[in-house]
Amino acid sequence: TAGVFSESGHGAQRLAFSTPLVLTGALDDHPVAVEILISRAKERARSPMSGSVLLVAAASKSDAANTQWTGLYQVLAEKVGSQAGFASARFFPLSAGASREETRKSKEELRALAKSLRQRGAIVVVTASLVRGESDSLLPKILDGILVKFNAKTMLPDRRLARWAEETLLKHEGLPDMRRYRDEEGPAAGRRQ
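^ thats the sequence. predicted structure below, dont judge the formating
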């Protein structure tokens, strides 16, 4: 059994399961993520060559994580843009669960970015979230009045993610079970029990 805990209403309770768990890389800018976002953008784009694609997802609540994550997603946006034939590509991290002031500022910055991109040509806005969240529901209102094509489909559900999961599983199947705990000593990192 592994040492994963769950709140059951009566304090923490250990969950028992026999499947080994390992930490692997995230979906990030994997070719499958690029494929999915290209298809989402192309569903709305008539002529990508003259336009821009703008990927939007919820910002991280941590400034340090948000800086790293924004850089990673900008690389993802550039891959989507270049492979789909867009003239430019950008990513915007929308702060939706932050303070009212941060949320207001984030909405204004996104609106300004969309207007700027629109002045250069057509713009396709694509949700870059795995599942629908608060930021996704705000996008139509934020972009209201700006002539954009908007695809609100999240990355899930999409059968291509099963391919990523299988590739990730096969690539990391030989790694040791990293989530095993011994009752008194904490993580027994790197060992199978």
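The CA atoms of residues 90 and 140 lie 18 Å apart.
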